[in-house]
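Protocol step 4 of 6: structure prediction from sequence.
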Amino acid sequence: MSERDTKPVHIRDVPADVVDTLQARAGARGMSLTAYLRNHLVDMANRPTMEEWTRAATDRGWGVDGETIQRTIREVREEDE
């Protein structure tokens, strides 16, 4: 990733104890706070939200419309009677 592929992000009003905790976690990994947060933001952006995941899982083109599915189910049920 080059600098041309990045944008600055500023986050205001983060509680001091939260910043302290994040700095400690970054330091424990030998990272700057900026690098630590960047890694977490990239990871967060790469994971779909539940809404995105659900949409992707249900928006599949099965090649069969709902009416055909319902008709087939009725036919199979009638055969079983």
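Step 5 (inspection) to follow. The mean pLDDT is 90.
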